[in-house]
Amino acid sequence: MSAALLLRSEIERNGPISFEQFMEIALYHPQYGYYRTSRDPFGKHGDFYTAAQLQPAFGRLIRTILEKLPVEHTLIDIGAGRSEMQEEFSNWNYYSVDVCSAHPQPVQGVIFANELFDALPCRVYDAHGHEVLVNIQNDRFTWTGIPSYERCLRISSMMQSMRSILDEGYLLIIDYGYEEREQQLRFPQGSLMSYHRHVASEDVLADPGLRDITAHVNFTEVTHHAVQAGFELIKKYKLSSFLLEAGEEEIGKLTKEHSQQLRSLLFGMGELFDVLLFRTR
Question: Dihedral angle at the C-alpha atoms of 173, 179, 184, 185, nearest 10 degrees?
């Protein structure tokens, strides 16, 4: 059995399915989902890198910044992958929480979501606002229409869940995307992409369970649902600008000790990723 066979069986039995359901099975099925198999998707021998693999520089910068905030030293790392942040947060109460697992009891501290929202299952719509489904034709997964944009209906419930486990503190989101209007102009056919062996493809229906699937994050929507859930936005940064908040002393140390990691964070990923910092209200 595989994710592809499960999806094929579902479509043959009940007809075309939403892309949200397709993405859910392809990425998160307990046995066959991309993030659930034994193969490690991260790093040189995987399919993609995240900033969290650039350790210790990334973890040290994030910790230094967070320790300047008036907050309990508790970090809830949601969608933590290999929990690369744990070592640099060894003097904190650190919780690594899987996207699909039960969340800890309410705490005071910081929720950290690094490249979480881009991998939440989403629905796909055409230019007229009609949902585009996934079907099978000539032994291949196909669209029932022409994709124009995607909507992640799970952002609302994710924000509500995050707020329910944070009595008081901060929510730190790092991801790639745009505000809604700019995203519509940049991606008139939607922003969905799949990744395999560091090669990007627009064919997100190919090889379900064997490829990562992502969509650029709609930060307008994220902020709206965060406010609805009981957060307030403090500031939105480029990642490079946010990491410089660690201060000259820490930046100077990392320049001497881990210059390549720091360069990648400030000049590579630093301009591609955005940071949203919220606090509870």
Answer: -120
Q: Coil, helix or strand for 136?
A: strand
Contact 191, 216 (CB under 8 A): yes
Structure tokens at 8: 């094929």
Angle between helices 248-257 and 57-66 (to 10 degrees): 170
Distance CA 194, CA 43 (A): 16
Q: How many DSSP H helices and E strands does the chain contain?
A: 10, 16
pLDDT digit string, tens, across residues 98-148: 876 667 789 999 999 999 999 999 999 999 999 999 999 999 999 999 999
Structure tokens at 222: 């994220």
Distances (CA, A) of 26 to 9, 30, 142, 155, 240: 14, 10, 15, 19, 32
CB 61 within 8 A of CB 246: yes
108: three-class secondary structure by DSSP: strand
CA distance 251 to 101: 35
List C-alpha distances in Å: 7 to 52, 138, 243.
Answer: 32, 15, 41
What percentage of the chain's residues is helix, strand, coil (to nearest 5)? Answer: 35, 25, 35
Q: Which residues contact 45 (CB under 8 A, 6 or more apart)?
A: none
According to DSSP, residue 29 is labeled -
Asked whether the whole model's pTM tops 0.90, one would answer yes
Q: Nearest to residue 6, comparing CAs of 155, 131, 28?
A: 28
Token couple for 188: 């008139």
Element (H, E) at 133: strand 133-137
Express each pLDDT in 221-269 by its tens digit.
999 999 999 999 999 999 999 999 999 999 999 999 999 999 999 998 8
